[in-house]
Structure to design on (140 residues):
């Protein structure tokens, strides 16, 4: 399988990115000459990691018949000091909300995503240490 995207320069530091799922704007911070009117490329990598794993988790919740009220994933990355700057350490925190959460099954679901299914996670492991944590929140 091959994926293809197209990114068109709009002037300055702004670009329009075309993705199979839709279009979005990329721009730089004002401090580096951008207009602060678009998504940041490096942060999009963190979004891709959360989105990839999130899709796995949502799919596995259904397949494994695990009930949660909601969940979200927070991702934080530390960049190297020297150019080219890249993420050397990434922290992911999965937050699950619900009543009587099945913590064992949720742990298994996250593990399946991060160890077997999430290709973006596998790519990140090539250049960064990825630390994963799960937090359970009761919605009583």
């Amino acid at each position: 399988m091959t994926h293809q995207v197209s990114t068109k320069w709009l002037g300055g530091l702004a670009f329009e990115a075309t993705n199979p799922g839709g279009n979005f704007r990329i721009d730089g911070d004002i401090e580096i000459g951008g207009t602060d009117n678009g998504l940041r490329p490096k942060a999009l990598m963190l979004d891709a990691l959360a989105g990839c794993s999130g899709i796995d988790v949502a799919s596995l919740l259904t397949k494994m018949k695990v009930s949660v009220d909601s969940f979200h994933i927070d991702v934080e990355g530390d960049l190297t000091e020297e150019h080219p700057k890249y993420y050397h350490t990434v922290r992911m925190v999965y937050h699950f909300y619900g009543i009587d959460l099945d913590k064992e099954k949720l742990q298994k679901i996250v593990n399946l995503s991060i160890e077997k299914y999430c290709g973006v996670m596998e790519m990140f492991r090539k250049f960064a240490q990825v630390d994963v944590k799960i937090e359970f929140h009761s919605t009583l």
